[in-house]
Amino acid sequence: MAGSQSRAQPTRLYLLAYNTTCAIIWARILFITITTLISSDVSSVYALEPWTRFAQTLAVAEILHAATGIVRSPVFTTFTQVFARSVQVWAINYAFPDVTKPSVAYPAMLLAWATADTIRYSYFAIMLADWPIPRALKWARYSLFIILYPVGISSEWWLMYNATNVAEHWAVTSIFYFFLGLYVPGSVMMYSYMLKQRRKVMALQ
């Protein structure tokens, strides 16, 4: 993940800038998703696709953060989450707009992703700035995933499944079905990791 930091000042400042930037981008996505759903129809949310793709592609840096040791996040867990989302934004949402745009699963996914990541990046930015972390933010960081993860994961799965129905090449369809099958063990791994983190953090309060 993006948060745990070494004490080297340049590294800390870089991570502070990275997490602050990501928090702002995801907060913007969350705000526009909500206001669009209130004022327009579901398909209008797809206008956020380039922003969401950009924000998620930026997260590839987190794999490097973990691999180089500037954060203490597990490399495999970080890679799994970032890779799964990167496939989603590029190979599904961007490549198959006709099935992504009208689906209610797309705004549901954005709401889950943007809420979780606005909270997560804000939490790390505050921590890196050496400010006291509000109890409400800490609770949200380690509790709301219980709801947000199932919503996000099920929405991703449904959008990818829909893409298999319109993919024109059998190789692409086969790859998508392979990824769909990986969602079960991958989801269990990520959910178990977050539950473990929640128990650890809440025990310290």
TrEMBL record:
Membrane spanning residue stretches: 12-38, 104-127, 139-160, 175-195
Keyword ATP-binding: no
Cell location: Endoplasmic reticulum membrane; Membrane
Keyword annotations of the record: Endoplasmic reticulum, Fatty acid biosynthesis, Fatty acid metabolism, Lipid biosynthesis, Lipid metabolism, Lyase, Membrane, Transmembrane, Transmembrane helix
One GO-annotated biological process of the protein: fatty acid elongation
MF-aspect GO terms: very-long-chain (3R)-3-hydroxyacyl-CoA dehydratase activity
Reaction(s) the record says it catalyses: a very-long-chain (3R)-3-hydroxyacyl-CoA = a very-long-chain (2E)-enoyl-CoA + H2O
Entries under Pfam families matching the protein: PTPLA (PF04387)
EC number(s) reported in the record: 4.2.1.134
Organism domain of life: Eukaryota
Pathway(s) this gene product operates in, as recorded in its UniProt entry: Lipid metabolism; fatty acid biosynthesis
GO cellular component term of the entry, any: endoplasmic reticulum membrane
Function: Catalyzes the third of the four reactions of the long-chain fatty acids elongation cycle. This endoplasmic reticulum-bound enzymatic process, allows the addition of two carbons to the chain of long- and very long-chain fatty acids/VLCFAs per cycle. This enzyme catalyzes the dehydration of the 3-hydroxyacyl-CoA intermediate into trans-2,3-enoyl-CoA, within each cycle of fatty acid elongation. Thereby, it participates to the production of VLCFAs of different chain lengths that are involved in multiple biological processes as precursors of membrane lipids and lipid mediators.
Family: Belongs to the very long-chain fatty acids dehydratase HACD family.
The name this protein goes by in its record: Very-long-chain (3R)-3-hydroxyacyl-CoA dehydratase
